[in-house]
Specification:
This protein has one domain. The chain contains 10 helices and 6 strands, in the order E-E-E-H-E-H-H-H-H-E-H-H-E-H-H-H. Helix 1 packs across helix 5 and helix 6 crosses helix 9. It is globular. The protein starts with a strand and ends in a 9-residue tail after the last helix. The mean pLDDT is about 95.
């Protein structure tokens, strides 16, 4: 008999009220959306990750190495003058290796954790990760521990379901179409009583997608860092993308 396995997805916002959590129960022949909620404080997130075989978290797990080095060099007045401070130099400073890989592979542009508002939930995750480590739960940036970094929008692109403007109140109709398409693409996924919650709130839907990707990572169906980027991923984080349809 197949022992049920729990996978967790977290759509992490800086504001707990907008943070989504989904739990999947993998029964072998089917995977059931066991619970979806929007509104999760740090305690709820720590508890959810600790209960999971694998947790997918929609948030950057680290900062670009070049950005960290620049800040430290600037702090100590040791920064050498660059030949130019133009867009190419800034791009090399502000984006992680994994951000550029996602753009190359699926055409999605992750937000820069060094220069965009995504830094606020990333800082929240840094504090949560510290709590998890204190509890003996490994959460290295490259995702080889219990938690891995995911990007629902890029996962949809990998599944050839990109193009939906499904965020916010105005995206409800698109979310209804997207849930229907996901049901067709993932016939083993039983939405149970949570279909409507995912149509009503994009944070709930992203949490379910994050949990599905976490399951893919656990099953070896997502792309790990290539050897030449493994060292950078261990510092900066790595966005795990499903391998495709």
């Amino acid at each position: 008999m197949h022992a049920a396995i729990t996978y967790v997805g977290i759509d992490l916002a800086a504001d707990p009220k907008r943070t989504g959590i989904a739990q999947l129960r993998d029964e072998g022949t089917k995977v059931v959306v066991e619970d979806v909620q929007v509104g999760a404080d740090d305690d709820a997130i720590v508890s959810a990750v600790m209960s999971a075989r694998k947790a997918g978290v929609d948030v950057p797990f680290g900062w670009p190495r070049a950005f960290v080095e620049l800040v430290e060099a600037h702090r100590t007045a040791a920064l050498p003058p660059p030949p130019s401070t133009g867009p190419q130099w800034r791009r090399e400073i502000l984006y992680r290796a994994t951000d550029l890989e996602v753009r190359r592979r699926v055409g999605k542009n992750p937000l820069s954790v060094a220069s965009d508002k995504i830094a606020h939930p990333a800082i929240r995750w840094a504090g949560i990760a510290a709590r998890l480590r204190e509890q003996g739960i490994p959460v290295p940036p490259d995702g080889c521990g219990v938690a891995c970094e995911v990007y629902p929008g890029a996962a949809l692109a990998a599944w050839q379901l990109a193009g939906h403007r499904y965020k916010g109140t105005e995206g409800a109709a698109s979310r209804a179409v997207l849930v229907k398409q996901l049901s067709t693409q993932l016939p083993w996924l039983d939405w149970a009583a949570h279909h409507d919650a995912c149509v009503d709130d994009d944070n709930a839907l992203d949490a379910v997608i994050a949990a599905v990707v976490a399951r893919d990572v656990d099953h070896g169906l997502a792309t790990p860092p290539p050897p030449e980027l493994a060292e950078l991923a261990a510092e900066e984080g790595w966005i795990w993308l499903p391998e495709g349809s």
